[in-house]
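Input/output pair, single chain:
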Amino acid sequence: MTRPWDWVTGESLLALDDPAEWDAAFARGERSLGTAAIGLAFNCPLEEASPRIARATRLPDIAQRGFASTAVGTAARLNGALTPELYEVLRAAGPGRKSIAVNAVNDTLTFVPFRDLPPWLKRWAVYVTVRDKLEGWWLRGEDAARRVWQVVRRG
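Output:
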């Protein structure tokens, strides 16, 4: 059944289940390709969706690149794995807090078994775990110091 895909508004594209339709839309220069990439992540096998998701992460529209990053995270959530191509997308975007792919990286670290991650992402996972633990200790220490200071000021 052919669905009426609305490439201008993105309406119904989360249901996109035809990689050939995505390819045709890409060739036509349609909008909402990042949104459609999420649809492919939901509805297609990872191996079919992966090259299109990767291509969508290189779109000129920053919003559509953001949706494509969401598609990477969605693929990790649904499959418990990513393709080497999608790991490279994450690596190129950078895993830091200011990266467009920060949520996709976090989804990957959450849903893909540690043993299946590439070495660079394993190192990042260890770094993030240590950083977050240190930040937590720092914030608890600040809070304790603030409370002590309040008690000293009152007394």
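The longest helix spans residues 119-154. Helices lie at 19-28, 33-43, 46-56, 62-79, 84-93, 102-111, 119-154.
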